[in-house]
Design a protein that fits this description.
alpha+beta
C-alpha cells in the first residue's frame, strides 16, 4: 500500500511538472545576397528564420546560389506552430517598452 501511494504521488508530481514546462526555439536573422548575376537578384535582403545557418543555406540552394551572413540570433519561449509569428529580439522589445513608459510611442 505504501508503494502505491508513492507511485501516485510521483505521477501527480510528473503531471504537474509536465504542464509547467514550456518549449523554446531560436530565431536567426541573416543578411542574404544571391550569387547569381540576374537583374532581379542584385539586391540584398534581411531574413528572419528558425532555420540554423547551415540548414538555411542548404534549404535555399546551397553556397553556390546564396551568400548568407548571420546578423544575430535570440531565443524565444513558446512554439512556432499554427502560423504563430516569431518573437522580437529582447532588446527591441525592451526599447519599445521603455518608449511606452515614457509616452513616446
Amino acid at each position: 500500500m505504501k508503494n502505491q501511494n508513492s507511485i501516485k504521488l510521483f505521477l501527480v508530481f510528473i503531471a504537474f511538472w509536465a504542464t509547467s514546462v514550456q518549449a523554446e526555439y531560436r530565431v536567426y536573422q541573416y543578411y542574404v545576397k544571391s550569387r547569381f548575376s540576374l537583374p532581379q537578384d542584385k539586391n540584398s535582403y534581411i531574413v528572419t528564420s528558425t532555420l540554423d545557418p547551415v540548414s538555411y543555406v542548404a534549404y535555399h540552394g546551397g553556397y553556390d546560389s546564396l551568400k548568407v551572413d548571420l546578423i544575430r540570433s535570440w531565443t524565444c519561449v513558446g512554439h512556432t506552430g499554427a502560423g504563430k509569428e516569431l518573437c522580437e529580439p529582447v532588446l527591441e522589445s525592451f526599447n519599445e517598452q521603455e518608449r511606452l513608459n515614457q509616452g513616446r510611442l
